[in-house]
Amino acid sequence: MTPTRFPLPVVADEKSVPLSAAATEAPLDEARFAPERTPGEHGYGRTYWRTLEEKALGPDAILNRDREFSPGQLDVPTGFQRRDFLQLMGASLALAGITACTEKPVERVLAYTKTPDGIAPGNPLHYATASSRDGLATGLLVTSWEGRPTKVEGNPSHPGSRGTTGPAEQALLLQLYDPSRARVLKERSAGRAWHSFRESMSQRAAVWGPAGGAPLHFLVEPSSSPTVLALRQEILTRFPKARIHAYASAPRDNIYEGTRWAFGAPLEPHLDTERADVILSLDSDFLEARSENLVATRGFAARRDLKSAAGMNRLYVVEPRLSITGGMADHRLRARSSDIEGIAVAVLAQLAKTVPALSRFSSVAGPALSPETARWVKAVAKDLAGKAGHSLVVAGERQSPLTHAVAHAINASLGNLGTTVRFTEPVLDTVSGPASWQPLLDELRAGRVDTLVITANNPVFSAPVDAGLGTLLKRVPNVVYLGQYDDETGLLANWFIPAAHPFESWGDVRAPDGTASIVQPLISPMFNGLTEIEVLQAFVDRPELKPYEAVRATWKAKAAADFDNAWETWLSAGVVPQTQNPFAAPVLRADAVAQLAAAAKPVPAGLEINFVTDYKVFDGRYAQNAWLQELPDPVSKVVWDNVALMSEATAARLGVKTYDPISRTYDVVTLSVEGHSVEAPAFVQPGCADDAVTVQLGYGKQIVELLFEADRPAVVGFNAARIRTSTAPWFRTGLVLTPTDKTMTVVTTQTQPTAADRPVALMQTVDEFQKDPEAVEHRRPMGKLKGNALPSVQKPVDYSEQQYKWGMSVDMSRCTGCSACVVACQAENNIPVVGKEQAGKGRVMQWMRMDRYYSGTAEDPEVVNQPMLCQHCEAAPCEYVCPVNATVHSDEGLNDMVYNRCIGTRYCSNNCPYKIRHFNYLHWTADRSQVERMIYNPDVTVRARGVMEKCTYCVQRIERSRIVSRLENRTIRDSELLTACQQACPSEAIVFGSLNDPNSRVSQLHGDQRRFDVLHDLNTRPRTAYLTKIKNPNPELA
Amino acid sequence: MAADLAAAPAIDGGPLLLGKNDNTSLTKSLLAHVWARPDRGWLLSFMIALSGTGALTLAIVVTLARGIGTWGNNIPIAWGFGIINFVWWIGIGHAGTLISAILFLFQQQWRTAINRFAEAMTIFAVLCAGLFPALHTGRPWFAYFMFPYPSDLQMWPQFKSPLVWDVFAVSTYLTVSVLFWFVGLIPDLATLRDASTSTIQRKVYGLFALGWRGSGRHWHNYKVAYLLLAGLSTPLVVSVHTIVSFDFAVSLLPGWHTTIFPPYFVAGAIFSGFAMVMTWLVPARHFLGLKHVVTMRHLEAMNKLILVTGMVVSYGYMMEHFIAWYSGNPDEWFVFYNRATGPYRAIYWLMMFCNVLTPHIYWFKYMRTNIAVMWIASILVNIGMWCERFVIIVTSLHRDFLPASWGMFHPTWVDFTLFAGTIGFFSTCFLLFLKYLPAIAVSEVKELNDELSHPTHSVQVVTAS
Q1: Å between B273 CA and nearest CA of chain A
Q2: Neighbouring C-alpha atoms within 13 Å toward the C-beta of A580
Q3: Pick from B142, B160, B402: CB nearest A903
Q4: The CATH classification of domain B14-464, taken from the options 1.20.1630.10, 1.20.120.1460, 3.40.640.10, 3.40.50.10490
Q5: Residues whose CB is less than 8 angstroms from the CB of residue A459 and which lie 6 or more positions away in sequence, other chains included
Q6: Residues of chain A with pLDDT > 70: what percent?
Q7: What confidence score (pLDDT) does residue A20 get?
Q8: In which domain, by residue range, is A236 found?
Q9: How far is A790 from chain B, CA to nearest CA, in Å?
């Protein structure tokens, strides 16, 4: 029955006793996919060979030779065994006579043997689905070429996306095609069938049953999925004493706890930043491009525009390190995280003194503040009060519940509820931090757990060190783990189940506001992955439903009549209408908050350790994702590492040397907390609070570097969870930092932090700008620029007769630097990853570079982000130096690269003043497996070694739009055509279109008073215009 | 006029030939090293040079097999050792033509003793230089796209690019240099043929002697051809390095975009070329027993030229810095500031020391005539000129317009091996030349000997028409 061409001998682990006959007849062809470089690793104990050739050359020899079938092609769907086959055949025969009145087969992921209706080969389709991280959904549209997904975009009709995405969503695809994902369902180390797992669990159920399921525990990812929640309920009905513990390494507990303190119930806050005139962020990184922030970012950015009807907003940020949000602040206060609660209380106390509506809080005294901070707090309070009803105080997930409660108290008292912030019922587990899983630890310690089912993402790796989860799990007789990778938790599980990628599975998930989306697969599981829905069903006493059936069943119960039609509509729209929760009208429990705030005690001075989720790998779940690893951190520009961020003063005080440019190394320091310690490279980061050291979570994993000639396991970074304690998962004082003699190489893609006094990335205050819009010498409005055109030997080409004259504008006022565009560009344009070593050599290939310049002091820098991509100069310096005509201008003004013609003299790069050209120094895409190659966008050439490449303004998208418009006998409409970076950008900073259309948005922006051309004095006449960053400082704090 | 010329040696310095020579003794002494069995010194040097060539081969194989990524180049420093070495070798290749052609046209009699030597050096240096433009491209197997060949695609090179001009300039230069050298060799090859003791030698030398019999008609044609080639080479001396300098001057990069580059590059090329001639000539005249032909007079004249060209180069540096300041262009000024104070300042100051200070020792006759001093000084100038190319290429690129794109250049072992390998290859060629061909233009020296002994008969030199 097993359709392998090379049937492997089935050798069971001697220790594992087959639980049923089915186990031995398991389809072990999966073993073909066991990582080939470690023979015997996956439970076969010893290496078998079948021919002498294979013995000599290894199993790859045959696999490589026989590429007739790509991996996955030969595999029947998991669980499809002899019995299923007979059942199915029986059913088919039975139904053969009545096919006219039956539905299609139940499994909707079909083999691509017959072209479905509506598909024209070469024309991609877009399917709506959703991804979730810790249970919160982002609606997505995935581009699929004949069943092969290649690009992710945001779903415009989804409230958690509005058409945009963050870097993580863009990079999801790389994980889909990651050959290092787990492929084999295993018991200990022996491959097993799905069937065997279910049988094993049902046998064990006999043990749990009498105890009401007390020895059965679940450690699950927070979930908003109605299907999963229903299943959990079913399990609890069957085993009333079983316990389900939500686990998130970055729990949102403080948010819900804060609302509980302020309003008496856990609530989900929704920021309407577009209506906020003044925003105070208490360590809230609400502009980080995470799914729950995308809408807030868009609203915020809309108000950074001088032309917005409501005027420009003002952002105050208090934070311990420089974050993306901090970089956008008009005023930023550095403070240890421990002191932020005090500052929040101080703002409340100050408001209580000055605003009658807050007199209820007059009992709150607030801590003693330094004169500088006091002045800051006073100005902020005045500003917030002045814009009552349109101000917003937002506390970050890392901050204490009291900080949240104080923020809510201020918002409620100033009348901001309902305008700038609204609340709904939470859609998922409101407790997923230590409070949620401490009871489990107690049970584990007591040895009362027989079976622990883990569907949370790698808790052994990410859990705080004092939980000791790794040690405790060893004592549990039966640990079941559903994971995408055979990771730290997988090693300790006796049942390891490979998890399906979100793009391979059916499911449902809800956005923070409650809007539900059906998760539909784009491709059948490539590596035999299974879903949480399937795993949980093993603990329910009823026939198994496939995830598709389970999800349909859930929604059929909820739907009105005509479910099938509704279902199709939901799938195509990506959202289920009318599923959002109504806005709550919470009442502030002012006295309780006042009491708590009055009782708040200042935290004594001392060195503080801060844990933050990483901008790239989050809590480690994307650690295997090379696009994200190679994405320069939006602030520090570090790639392939995490570092201990600290201020210059702190580093000097502790005797830590800063970066040594000669050896290109950073000092390694030991960070110790309560006897736990970890070694980390010390990185002096401008804008960090003194005495606050910040480390990013999610690194320190043994990952396979899937890179050019670097196909070896490597540890990337250090695991900050090893000094994280469950009593203080986000920050605590009492850090001991000791320098070591060691140094290590950390790669940053931008070595020069400032603009070196050059007028490259312009920034002005509102006042400066309004006084004299042309005060900055290097900004010339469009008309003036034409009038003052510098003499040029290159005769200007007249593009006015062309149908289109492509151009772009980048609004630096809006740009937060989140770098979603960088990954979007990488995904769209088949841009290779080069690895840490090559990145250190200055060979990063990303066509989009997020330049970040600091100005002001190193303690309190101001940040300006400048996305730098090919400027498509009309007088392009790259073109006239190319000896072989490999880079030339198109009729519509694009600077095109002719890869076939390029011989790689690299003269064009030397002559490019923006240095946005990238050269294939090595064959980056060599050795890509068939699976990895599936990610390529077929519209874009995969470049060979030795050729130059650069941004094309997404010429493939231009041509697709041209084809569509010609078929419809019209011109391309403005904003019908989006470049990849533009489409991803959460703050709508990038606009692309034709400059020959005077009404296009890009034309308008090119005529904007804030417009300037980078290096305009070189007379390259770039088609990409930048809009000066405008800041809106409070005159009182000037 | 002829009398003046003949009298010139007396005024100008020491004698051009030492001792009492006649045609027979000159032939014997100048060709002795060809007939002698290779001595141990030569064999040892040759083995070292050959292993250098082997290293070069290895580095080339690595480069071709794996790509330019094996070098230290990156973005922004897309040109590194490859182009530095190219410019350095091309520069070295300038002395030969200058000595052969321009000094010939100016009837500088002292050139005869060293022109053969310098020409051979030119050819080998250009061969080394020519390796790099092809090798440094990302896809060398398509380097032929640079030539205007009849293609199905009807694609031509892009003639606005200085790299295309380079292709023509360097290939023309190589062709003319080889021709010039070979034409000059013909009478000596015939002498070798006639003096051969074995059949193989006679046949090989005879093949290349092109049937030379030394008739009046032969001599007439030979002189006309030599004169024409000298005329043809003369503009090349100036044009090749001018065009190489265009690779930089035509771009818009601060530190490259400079109008002074053509003359400054030519002067630099001659400067380094003379230095390289000295580096080889000083030991060669000793080991090959040529001291009576290559006299202190020659060495002193060369040193004077090094002083002159060194000062021209210094002037170039001065003007470059002055214009950077005077133009008021902050980017331009920053490049020079960064060169002197930035991370590559050591190389900048080494360049300044070698190229600006070193030549000034030649104001003193003691220094001009001290063998050890001149040999060390010539090596210093070679180092200085290599540093100059490094400074121009790397320090201009590594910090250009947008500070966010600044970077650093760290060469790899392949870079160093390629460079050292070309020196090995050059030495291999040169040692073979010294062994199997007359290192001194024997017929010209004999002619000079005649002229010196019969001053009034020397009218026949080329100015006749």
Answers
A1: 27
A2: 17
A3: B142
A4: 1.20.1630.10
A5: A219, A247, A249, A469, A489
A6: 85
A7: 38
A8: 186-251+430-501+525-546
A9: 15
